[in-house]
Amino acid sequence: MEAMEGGGLVANETKPTNKAKQTSIGRKKFNMDPKKGIEYLIEHNLLAPTPEDVAQFLYKGEGLNKTAIGDYLGERHDFNERVLRAFVELHDFTDLILVQALRQFLWSFRLPGEAQKIDRMMECFAQRYCQLNPNIFTNTDTCYVLSFAIIMLNTSLHNPSVKDKPSVEQFISMNRGINNGGDLPRELLVSLYESIKTEPFKIPEDDGNDLMHTFFNPDKEGWLWKQGGRYKSWKRRWFILNDNCLYYFEYTTDKEPRGIIPLENIQVREVQDRHKPHCFELYAAGSEFIKACKTDSEGKVVEGKHTVYRMSAATDEEKDEWIKCVRQSISHNPFYDMLAARKKKAQKTNVYSKS
Predict the structure, then answer these.
(1) What's the pTM?
(2) 13 within some domain
């Protein structure tokens, strides 16, 4: 009998151990493939198959990769969208100014890169913020647009590749008319600007499980011939593609780049050139000049005046590889068009409310 009791005790003791082991396996699976990880945890009765239970698991985030959390929450499936809503409802933004709420929200996962995913997540955030703080904005569109303005301000103020830092007056001007056709209080916009200027957003840094981010390794590097802007001469430059920017150097040993081309609203295409083989070029999508900077002969940083950047690779294969890598890195998402449409809607709402 005692042996049976002893055996039973041993069996009972192994259950928590098995559960902990299965939970650990489930977390690892989630970090590699979020959908499969959740399926594994549900199959092993470690998670209930409800949006609320899955949301709670993601919100606690123990041992979970924040990039994987963001990818899962952004998926356009009915269950994922219900999980997203439940996840956002776990955040309490009551009496927080918008920038504080954004800090809390954007620390709980890593925002994915796809425009449609970002749109759904920020829409849920705006609805939740306005629900808990009903007297701040006239509608959720205003909150949505201003949230993106804050995120972009953070990038502009703290990204070293952005040389032209926006002033508080530019930030205020950028957000004119977004509150149901009217302006937001100046003191609110000034306080948001100062908060971001003083303390940039903390972006979640994932651990070694993160296979997606190669911060220390460039996406692509190598020698290319680059055509000049004003004078159409060709010069050999060492190019490094990393973090949505294309850098070029005179020598591989140089510590400072000769030029920086942020890949915002940029497109790439294959071209034919009479003087060089295997050519491709970067060009601006919908604007005259590409926003870039370079170092002049005196060492001063000046704004680039290129409408296109034309490069020549050593082989056809190299050219195709560069085009492929640049396309993968290009940061114009339909996101900008989507945001413009939402801003237009926020500015025009007042017309209908008066009629």
Answers:
(1) 0.59
(2) no
